[in-house]
Each structure stands twice: as C-alpha cells, then as structure tokens.
Amino acid sequence: MTTHVSTLANGLRVVTHEMAHLETTSLGAWVGVGARHDPASENGIAHFLEHMAFKGTARRSAQDIAEEIEGVGGDLNAATSLETTAYYARVLKGDEAMALDILSDILQYSEFDEAELQRERDVILQEIAASRDCPDDVVYDLAQEAAYPGQPLGRTILGTPETVETITPDGLRAYLGERYVAPGMVVSAAGAVEHGRIVELAGELFGGLKNVGVPSNGSRALYKGGVAGSSYPFEQCHLIVGFEGPSYCDPAYFAAQVLSGLLGGGMSSRLFQEVREKRGLCYSVYSSVYGLSDTGVMTVHSATTPELAPQLLEVITDELVRLAAEGPSEKEVSRSKAQLKAGLMMGLESSAARAEQMARQLICRGRLIDKEELVAKVDAVNAEDVRQLLASMLCGEPTAAVVGAGERSKDYAQSVSEALRAAAAG
Length: 426
Description:
The protein is of the alpha+beta class. The chain has helices at residues 45-52, 62-70, 96-108, 114-132, 135-147, 161-164, 169-179, 195-206, 253-264, 270-278, 309-326, 330-348, 351-364, 371-379, 383-395, 409-425, and strands at residues 2-7, 13-18, 24-31, 75-80, 85-92, 185-191, 226-230, 237-245, 285-291, 296-304, 399-403. It folds into two domains: 2-206, 2-Layer Sandwich (Cytochrome Bc1 Complex, Chain A, domain 1); 226-425, 2-Layer Sandwich (Cytochrome Bc1 Complex, Chain A, domain 1), CATH 3.30.830.10. 47% of the residues lie in helices and 18% in strands. The strands form two sheets. A six-stranded mixed sheet has the order 1-2-6-3-5-4, with helices on both faces. A hairpin with a 4-residue loop joins strand 9 and strand 10 (296-304). Helix 9 packs across helix 15 (383-395). The longest helix has 19 residues, at 114-132. The chain is globular and about 65 Å long. The N and C termini lie far apart (53 Å).
C-alpha cells in the first residue's frame, strides 16, 4: 500500500493511498469548513450548502447528477461536521474521472436555484424536526451548548428553523466563494488509484479554485461546561456527562482514546460491567472522545428509566472518581490499547475510511500519520497517563445534560455536576 501527497499550484492538496487488491475507489473533496464557521445569524448554512450542492449546476440538473453516478454503479454523498464538510463518492476502478468531474462541478458551479432552495429548505426543516424527536440528538445538542455556551461550537450543525429560513441563494454563493478556497481543501482518494492520474485530474478540474488564505475560524474555542435539561417527554431518560479533553492535535489525544475505551468502550469496560452487568441499570452505557483542532470533549452517555436515573448517575460519578484516584490496571490499559489499535488497522482496510482519515489529518495536522507512528503513539500510553488525564478532567468544570425525566431533568444534571465538583474539591 502506497501513500502520496502533492500540492497543486493553487494550494490544493491531493492525497492518495493505493490499495492494489481493490477494484473500487473511494474519493472526494474535503473542505476545512463546518458548522463552527457559520455566522450566528446563518447558523446551519454550512449544512444547507452541502444539501444544495446536489440540486443542479450549470451543466447538470439534480436528476442528471443522480443518474450519471448511479449509471456506473457508484454512489455519491456528503456530510457536514463541526470543522469540515465532505463531498465523496465510491466508484469502480476506471470511473474516477467521472466522479471527480461531478464533484468539481457541484463545488464550483452549483446554481442555487430559488425553487430548489425552497424545496431543500423544507427538507432541512423536516430533518430538524426529526432530530428534536430523537433523544440521543437532543441530549448531545444540549450538552454541546452547555459545554460551549454563546459560541459557534455550542450551536447545532443543522441550524434552527429561524436561521434556516433566512438563508438565501446569494448567501450560499457568498459563503461558497469565501470559504471554499484551494489551500483549505483536500482531494483524497483510496483504493484502485494511481497518484499521478488523480493529481492530473485534480489540476484540470479544481485548478480554478482561488489560491487565497484560508479564513480564520474566529476566536479559539473556550470550553466552559455547565448543565442543561429538557422536559420534553421521551420514553427513556438519556444522560450525558462530559469533560474537556485534548484536541485532535494534542499528544494526549491518544491517552484520551485509551481512557475512553477502558471506561466505556466495550462489554469489558468498567461502566458496562458495573452499570449493566452487575446492577442492571440500563441497556447500554458507553463513553466517547472527540477532538477538534483546538479543543476536545470526552462524554459518557447512557439511557434508563427516569426512576433509575439518579442511581445511574451516582454510579457513573463514583466510577469516574475511583478511576481518577486509583488509576486503571495494566490489564485494562492493555485491553483498551488492543481495541484501539485493532480499530485503527481495520479502518486502514476500508478505502472510504482511509480517504476520510487522510483528508482530516492533512486539514487538522498538516501532515499524514502513518500506521507505524499511530501504533507507537498508542503503545506509549501507560496507566499513569490515563489516571492523570482523567484527574485533570475532573478538576475542570463538568458538563451534564439530561432529557426524558420531565421537570426533573435539569435537577438531575445539576446534581451530578455538583457531585463531581465536590469530589474534585475533596
């Protein structure tokens, strides 16, 4: 397997990973722009732009785009995150030129027809309504807002019905022209590819992108923490407990991943064993960690009945405090590192996952990290690294969010926050 990176004259980076045993290619254009770049008055515009990219260009109608990619058995999609927007396709070997032509067309020559925009606005409003009916989405949005109040990172990726109603074709064109610039984008391909050919195609198709400085993210993210609750009725009570963690570029990010794995990363994890297996307080409990360019968050998420929520929160709090005080066993650390390395290696076997991984590394870190370096960074983590990291997290302000417990939701969130602060102080 061979990986190459080239930079075009306009600053666009092209990265490929040849996987000779494959007969397909995953490829796309990743843009270093996401929901955190949305102006407050246009919250949701990055996501709206992603939707509109498939609604017609000067050369292709929306139906033409769908029929052309599916006519060769391929698929085309896009996704908006907090810091990036991805437009990607998967096709059979030999169809890379067609796929890149469609991607370059929608990213540079979308028409943003008024009638299409209104139809897609209605679709997004339905998407927002659906997310508000999903307790997992609601509790994570509440936790994000509590962790980063009054900041772009505290707002939802989808936007609100009020802000989505304000987005116009001219607003989309302005956002596209300002943010979608060559030095802030990466064309990434993995699978049955030849680097020189992808570079040649990218030069022909994306050479017209502006070679100007990448717009700033604005102010640095400031994690504050806090509590949030919603009285909206759900069948189950969903709970989030979170802390500020390392950024994606912080060397401690690997220790955070090991911590998350041994705390709530699988059936053998502490929380799963204590909360589900021993006490039967819920069906599932898990932890996760995500890192952005300048901040990160580790969360524990679970769901139970409103009656069991106080006990569940108490057990989670006790396990966090105990782990920070005593540290994990070497066996726990070894098991978590094995799971993490297996996940990394399995990801390298997926062309789609590999294309995304390479693009994100270039956008956030400015360089690729090969598998040997990844494994070495994971192997370097020890039990004391994990204990110290969690102890430092507990010294900061926690984030707690609860939905599904009616009027008691915010009270439950407040109680776990106070318990964690007291434990850190004591």
